[in-house]
Specification:
Helix content: over 70%
Order of helices and strands: HHHH
Radius of gyration: 21 Å
Distance between the termini: 78 Å
Structural class: mainly alpha
Length: 126
């Protein structure tokens, strides 16, 4: 007996859903990388320098916390965005997310600015 398969609304837009999933996974990798870089910088700072550096220690801690916060917020925001986009694709009401891109760009820019300040300070000590 042949079983009849029912077509879902998701299957009508399978390419768009797969592209949405690839984009989501790219953001997940990005958030993991940002958190990893924050841990790396903080760990290298405190394991390679034997003396207290005051401002350098402060920048290193801020950098680690900012990277973790940015990574977690990126993961949370992109997860919400993934499900919202999936619904919008099925409803054919998809609109690109200007706010998300702007927020993440500014956030990443601030973390990279802290990276820069840390390296400028570290190079002055050498």
């Amino acid at each position: 007996m042949k079983e009849e398969k029912r077509q879902t609304i998701d299957s009508k837009y399978i390419q768009q859903h797969l592209a949405n999933e690839r984009t989501y996974l790219a953001w997940v990798r990005t958030s993991i990388t940002i958190m990893g870089v924050g841990f790396l910088i903080t760990n290298l700072h405190f394991s390679t320098l034997s003396e207290q550096l005051g401002f350098g220690d402060f920048l290193s801690r801020i950098l680690g916390l900012a990277a973790i916060a940015l990574g977690l917020s990126t993961l949370l925001i992109t997860t919400i965005s993934y499900f919202r986009k999936a619904k919008d694709i099925n409803n054919q009401t998809f609109a690109y997310s200007k706010g998300l891109v702007l927020f993440l760009s500014i956030s990443f820019g601030l973390v990279f600015l802290i990276f820069g300040l840390y390296y400028i300070y570290a190079w002055e000590l050498i």
